[in-house]
Amino acid sequence: MPRARIDLHTHSTASDGTDRPAELVAHAAASGVDVLAITDHDTTAGWDEAAAALRPGMRLIRGAEFSCAGPTGRADPDVSVHLLGYLFDPEHPAIVAEQLRLRTERVQRLHRMTEKMAADGYPVDVETVFALLPDGASAGRPHLARALVAAGVVESVNEAFAKLLYTGSPYYVPKADTPVDTAIAMVRAAGGVAVFAHPLARRRGRVVEPSVLVDLAAAGLTGVEVDHPDHGPEDRKLLRGLAADLGLVATGSSDYHGTNKTTPIAAETTGEDALEALVARATGAEVLTG
Ligand code: AMP
Ligand code: FE
Ligand code: FE
Ligand code: ZN
Q: pTM of this prediction?
């Protein structure tokens, strides 16, 4: 058997990706992906459509990327941290309540960011931005970025982030994310496994000290995303070493967002052993087979 091609971090229109969940699965299949995880921000709304579109021989890992905040391991303020939860029970009350709270935060915050830009004369309005969102989807800065592209203000989503929407920009509005240790406990209580997404993605802003992984491992973290498009070779080496020392599962994933980012699906992949180790520790939801 050839080695399975495993991509454990992708987004659909249920959050800030541009492929509908069924299109995401079709695209993964066409790209030779055998095992796909759907990990939209703060929602499981894409799970059922993705499951229904599964092709024979493919496996679907149902997950989500949780918006969290946590200590940096230095004296500076807490930083935004993303936590991938896999194979948790989507009906676990704490998950349902916290994801709803996060999505509400996201809507209010995107409203305020859009209004701030409109007040400064940018040709964007709340109606146009929210028209890009299917019912129940998680609102995110990429939706505002696409409205700015459509209005001709910038040429790409990436340029919108670089010039106008970056964390700390005059138009940036923060949201109240989940304390990362709370999120790990919640995912574990719902039978899932938690993986720290792109911990050293430095181009997005401040990142944690790698030593923070020691505390998170003690708090129940199962894995860490090592191979990610936003990680350079030195950081990957450091994270791989730390993962081995701490007994954390090392994963690799594309963080595919359709045309909102330039990274192709399966640009980075996870090994079969790592996948097995994650699945073996999860009890909240089944791995689906097409
Ligand atoms: P939000 O979740 O609303 O805070 O927006 C953050 C999301 O924007 C991330 O999940 C990424 O998908 C996306 N993002 C961040 N930086 C960039 C960038 N430079 N280009 C395109 N998308 C980005
Ligand atoms: Fe995203
Ligand atoms: Fe992320
Ligand atoms: Zn992501």
A: 0.98
